[in-house]
Amino acid sequence: MSERAETAARGIHLAGASGSAGERRPSWAQIRAALAADRAHWHRRGHGSATLRRGYHAVWLYRLSRYSHERGWRMAAWLLWLVNGWWTGADIPPSSRIAGGLFLPYPHGAVIAGAVGHDVAFGLQASIGGLLKEPDQDIGGGPGLPVLGDGVVLEAGAIVLGAVLVADRARIGPRTIILKDVQIGETVMPQPWRPLPGRGAAA
């Protein structure tokens, strides 16, 4: 098995979505443990109590939605998804697989569709999702969706699109669009900014 496939498979397992029916149904204790990890990550980053923050509400509602989805209560799962979008502005489908320790301080405009490992941080309007050109390729996040490893950081406006793997401890810079795999511990930044001549600039 390739390193990419192994990392993707580990990401699925961490997110509580392995193959057998028993493992696919997380217990309420596992949901509570994931929420505790979410709060711990929030505290480590110095943002104080998470309980009253809308970003934590987005994660909390996602976890309830995911629990309902895996228990087969699909209507309840998608209703919670709608409530989450209305209350927090985040789009986190219940089919997404997210391990504990998600840090999402600014949920409005964030989209998280795919598989996410432990202790991942999303900046302002950072998002992951699919591309229409490859709807059938599945590396573990779902058809056409990405997989993020453990400890990944997406800065403000960063976007990961398609069936790509962002390996453990990678850092994606602000406003960077990722369309191919990122290696372990790699930092990816956008193209250097450069001024363009204005309309009144001298030739």
From TrEMBL:
GO terms for molecular function: serine O-acetyltransferase activity. Keywords: Acyltransferase, Repeat, Transferase. Its EC number is 2.3.1.30. This is Serine O-acetyltransferase. It comes from Methylobacterium brachiatum. The lineage of its organism: Bacteria, Pseudomonadati, Pseudomonadota, Alphaproteobacteria, Hyphomicrobiales.
